[in-house]
Amino acid sequence: MSKSDIVYFDYAYEVFFQHIEKYIELNENKRNFLKEFMRISYYPAKSYYVKSGMKAKQIGFLIKGSAIDSYEYNSKKIINRFYLENTFITSIHSFITQTEASSDIQFCETTVLLEFDYLAYLNIKKNFPEINTIINFIQNDEILFYKNRLLSMQIKDAKQRLQQLLSDNPDTLDRFKMKYIATYLGIEHETLSRLKLYNKFTKSESFPNNIE
Length: 212
What we know:
By secondary structure, the protein is of the alpha+beta class. It has 10 helices and 8 strands. It is globular, with a radius of gyration of 19 Å.
């Protein structure tokens, strides 16, 4: 392992630990214990982390890169969620219950994850019950996300949904394909293209008033 690799690995673990310390307390022993069961993995763009109909084998924390959660409907990829840095990524119900996932998680860029698999999770639980706090956070975050997404689709128009998406993830327009953003918002790709989002919303905070 090169010196640069060691520095990057240390950085990745530090980012992860700073994130989970929002929810649990860690000391040096606990940090070292978690490191024993975790690994840094690299995934190429277009590869899958979770496949629909298969069990989720691991939970990842996204250090660098991006991914989408999606499913196929009438031969069309429908986007459920976008993933960017400093978020957990998995099909949490599939992982915890070891049952089939209902959607795909696919990487959009070369992606670096800190992750642990299901067997490691079981071993961690034996000596580090605080892991359940993290799992509960991931579950609650997913429930809240889809609750807010459903509410948004019901009561907000396309302009408001887009504003919310950019407020939550300002880099979305630069990191994901326009066709993915369109299906996420529930509008046609052509509609999104006509708005010329890349130019309008990166140069101005104002939004057109005629979004259908």
